[in-house]
């Protein structure tokens, strides 16, 4: 899959395929028996696979999407409906949809030339970062970038975006995504909060103080969300929020 190859391209690919390095080494013992051992290549590959979820969180749109969906579920007061698995699946597919143009550019400019042996591993690694860096820079807030620049020990801002290291860009991007996600979540909370307040006020005026307002307001919130086609609105809003 192109997006998986694009994420793999974030790791120095020259560590994956050193010339003459086999995955399994066969050693002949003095007694004539043979022993088998895994080489460093397999260890590096397994390490890369283990860090892919972290790369998904700190370099793509996944963080913003999953937080907004979780806050939306909490605002509706529907408990665990939709379930965590459904929210994660929706977030992953929305992430793939939003990030697909970036992954396609990474594949065209870096991965495909490297697989065709038209580009070295070092060049492919540098070229693969460019589309992803452009996407991340479009979402990073200037104050977050300035904060992590100061924390890295640099007194002056970077002269150009090409000089910004990924170690500074990734946390800046993640903090900016958290801020944006909570802002969108706040806007989603307002209509549901108004429904809760109205229902609670009506029940209070009728003297039904022992009846939980959540029991009455939940059907109204679900009905409102379905009538306005809320899932489509949320998905389209999240997709448009990444347009620079």
Query: Overall 3D geometry?
Result: elongated
**What percent strand?**
under 5%
How many DSSP-defined strands? Answer: 2
Distance separating the two termini = 26 Å
Provide the residue-averaged pLDDT.
78
Unreliable spans? 1-24
- Characterize the main sheet: 2 strands, antiparallel
Quaternary structure: single chain
Structural class from helices and strands?
A: mainly alpha
Count of domain modules: 1
Calculate Rg over CA atoms.
25 Å
Helix content: 55-70%
Indicate the topology.
Blueprint: H1 2-8, E1 24-28, E2 34-38, H2 40-59, H3 62-76, H4 84-115, H5 121-139, H6 142-151, H7 166-205, H8 213-227, H9 230-240
Antiparallel strand pairs: 1-2
